[in-house]
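User: Hello, beginner here. Can you help me understand these amino acid letters and fold codes? It all follows right here:
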Amino acid sequence: MAIRFLVGVLLATLAGHAGTALTAWTPIFQGVDHAVGTNTPGGATFQNRQVAYFIRVDLRDPDVRLFSSPRLRNYIPNAAETPGYTVSDFLRTNRLQVAINANYFDPQEYYLRAGTPMDISGLSICEGTTVSAQENSANAAALLVTQDNQARIVHDNWPPASTTGVYTAVSGMYPILVNGVNTGYQYLNDSDFVHHVNPRTAIGLSEDRRHLFLLAIDGRQAGYSVGAYDWETAGWLLLAGAYDGINMDGGGSTTLVMQDSTGRPLRLNKPSAVADSGRERTVGSHFGIFARPVPGFINDVVATPDDTTAVITWNTTAPATTQVQYGLTTDLPLLTPPTSTLLTNHSVLLRDLSPARTYYFRALSEADGRKYASSNLVFTTTNYVTTGQLFDLDHPWTFTVGNLDGVPWTNPSYDDTAWTGSGPGLLWVDTRATGPLPEVQPRNTEMPPDPDNNGFPYVTYYFRTHFSFPPNVTGVSLILSNYLDDGAVFHLNGVEVQRLHLPGAPTDITHDTLAEGYSCEGGNATCPVVLTLTDTAAANLRPGDNVLAVEVHNYDRRSPDVTFGCALHYTQPAPRQPVLSIEWSSDGVTLSWDRQGFTLQSATEPSGLWTDVAGPVTTSPHTVTPSAGGAYYRLRQ
């Protein structure tokens, strides 16, 4: 989250300065730096007001890996090649540290569901597999990189260059920087819209081939950044240190994203698509970077969670104190006591945590009067549980297609006997002439289409069912395994507990609200969508009779199908004691245990004085040297 603050400060500082400025490179990951450029328009170098966002990648860093959009799992030759994602979703799905849009693609439309098959143009190679071949002379400016990050730019990849040894490749539309020469000027009088002032995505490479540059120039936002010509884009690459550069797909698709310290995507630029619609575009081609955290005083922070405890370890470059700040929110309201002993290897045991919860934390150390803190990080506690099934996919539901806006239809006392129909899941409607698709079987109960929508399905279908739960509901989590097409809102005993692919709360969901996406590739209910209800959501569970109510919303008014089925399971905490085991070897005695959250103790007699083993020792395994008189060991919590 610090990067968002940094960018804002940089832009505010530069706004008052004349001329063109590029901030100092700021490390955001090991081998990956970030900078922001701004300009005063009208000069010889830049004609238009622009804000340019840069990433510089050190290809000699041994931990840097490059990645591009992979091929569809069910790829059919000569058809669509990649699953479409927003750049943020691409980064999140592949756990990348940085991502940007890449090759030109057939847009179809711009706000498609995640996983929609896409047809991309130009060469694209992912982890040694050719995803898209170079089909013709269009979109033929390519970045080719070997597995050991030896990179080159081919300005005109037609006829195609050899891809032997190429591990990663993406392609741009045309070159704008060739051997240090700005070739973008040649497009000044070109009437093609792509050569006009637009948001821009570009990739550059330094002369020594050590540094790779990713560039996003924002546009179509008056007073902030209007966009760039080709020659201006090349000028920014030159300013950053590039020797060769290519113009990638741009416009509303231009999006540059990094991973924040908790693993979530953080947009560095302001895409014009987001400014217009509030949503990133779904694009067909991406380029990403894997990298390690930036080394600092605090390094190698690791969380090892259990159900109600977690061990946090890290090391420091000099002896320092040990403390952890943590909590269920990023405010980190809880703080462990600081230690007075100065160490380089640190370990803190967090106690009294809740099972199956996500916690945020950071490591704190102090040395020589200076305080150090890691980034905000995250872990999720485990849950030792008993499990059971409440009902399966063929469980019966009542359903209706009537407009229930303002009707308390989710309440347990609501009378649904007059609803349209009932039957076991899966419940479905499919208006395609070919009938139900075999991959989305078993479909048990057919529902009616909307005669007022040219025979397509209704936008919304409503479902209700009853189930019974035993008397003890303490600590229960509910697990819903759904086959769903497309979005849904789930209600338990009259209380909303989950939204999926619909606008978030507090936005009201009405009978006419369309889903914003879907879960399975291709938009059909071909994969299980698993939801887990814990804490507040599961607290609405009652002993005895319960009502689960679900409203399913179609993605498009002309989408031909709606499908819904749900299997309901539960889990309940089942505390488990650790097992302490001992193994002899020539190096000594190794003690190990199978649960976290315990501290190793020793004594000379079973009834003697038990003391913590020096450290203290909170992580398994631990090797000790046997004493002459022997020793006993146990774990304390």
